[in-house]
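pls read this protein:
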Amino acid sequence: MTCLFSPQFPSLLEAGLASAAVLISLGAVLGKANPLQVLVLSLLESAVFVSNSHLGYSVMGVADVGGAIFVHLFGAYFGVAAAFVMGRRARKRRSKVIKKKENFCQIRKFCLQCVSSLFHMDA
């Protein structure tokens, strides 16, 4: 039986960087988005991040050792843009806004802390 999916190190590294960019941008929308919006935002951002890094590395030939520039800048700018769009829509229908639970925010903060600590471990 042949395996259709064989993960290799570069694809796993790209997936880790994409998830770090998603977690960075989730810090900007921490109290504004509900879980469904976070899911849609994460799927959209992952696809856009991979295409952005392909454009930067392959087409433009940018040298980014470790991917720190792409991860942090893309995650920050995408998160600020998403927070701006979500905030503008929330101002339009302020009467229908329901207060979010703090538990979901704490879970996202915990995930961000776990992933960021993995990048800073000494080998």
